Amino acid sequence: MADPARETLPLPDYDHLPIGSLESRVRALSADEVEELLAYERSHGGRLPVTELLTARLEQLHAGAEPTSGDPEALRPEQGAGRTGSPVSPATSPQPFSPPPHGTPDQRGKPKGDRTEG
């Protein structure tokens, strides 16, 4: 069931925003909007980095900072980036490696030759 408070938040899909995107996007909000997000966060998620970020921004606004446009390049997951799957490709994959000398569960280690105790 959808939370009605979530539908009225000043940032769409707030719960799914990465903190880097949130940091940029709260710059465009007024003090009242930041207070609304902070109250929502405290009652729903209580994520310490997010509450610290929102509290710091609120203090900036109360100290005279003005809302700005924020970072237009910030991630906007609510718009659906259209990119899915892993960013791993043959070009970004690590080089293959040899198993350790002691072997793995499916491949036993190789003997080191004749050893005599003496």
Structure explained in plain terms:
The chain has 118 residues and is mostly helical. The chain has a domain of 64 residues. It has four helices and two strands. The chain has a two-stranded antiparallel ribbon. The protein is elongated and about 80 Å long. The relative contact order is 0.13. The model has no long low-confidence stretch (mean pLDDT 76).
Q: Gist?
A:
This protein is mainly alpha-helical. The protein is built from 4 helices and 2 strands, in the order ααααββ.
Question: Which short descriptors sum up this protein?
Answer:
mainly alpha; elongated; 118 residues
Characterize the biggest β-sheet.
2 strands, antiparallel
Structural class: mainly alpha
Alpha-carbon Rg, integer: 25 Å
Strand neighbour order, sheet with most strands: 1-2
How would the blueprint of this fold be written?
Layout: H1 4-7, H2 19-25, H3 31-44, H4 48-62, E1 103-104, E2 107-108
Antiparallel strand pairs: 1-2
Helix pairs in contact: 3-4
